Amino acid sequence: MTVTYTFDVFASLDGFGAAGGNWTGYWGKQGPELLDHRLALYDEEQRMVFGANTYRAFAQMLASSTEESEVRDPWVTRMRSLPATVVSTTLEEPLDWPDANVVSGDAVDVVARLKKDSDVPLRSHGSLSMNRALMAAGLVDRVQVTLFPVITGQTGLDPIFQGAADFDLELIEHRTLDGQIQELVYRPILHV
Fold this sequence. Notes:
The protein has helices at residues 32-41, 52-63, 74-81, 107-117, 128-136; strands spanning 5-12, 16-19, 47-51, 84-87, 100-103, 122-125, 142-148, 156-159, 167-177, 181-190.
């Protein structure tokens, strides 16, 4: 059996996954619909897949946050409670994640095995370079982009698709959250 793999990412309109400067989390645009929808996404049984850098960023962000901070939104807490696989040649167990394991090796090989062996869908939030490689290998079934209504031309960090292969995208779902945030779910097809 092969399960579905979703590459889930937040983006500014100009394609950045984050911003420096005085931007806050969610670029300050989150509302109750977005947060409720994110929580519902993580209510489903699934396994998280992270690259080492994204895992480190999440672990550091959560370790330095308080219970009241937006970093600990209920969906993030729920995501952290899901089983996770961290693809890394540098990290060692135990990880500061309740149900996580480290798998060493090439991400393409690791995820191909996970897709065959897993009983639940796979989801990765972030892990940009890993997911670009997985897309090129045809292992990403869905690209879920939550598009925030901002342009971060001067302060944008982490260009999501910089250096990616070319893809045609088939729109399979879309919704507007809080009257301004777009969630777009695509099936990527390598453009040849």
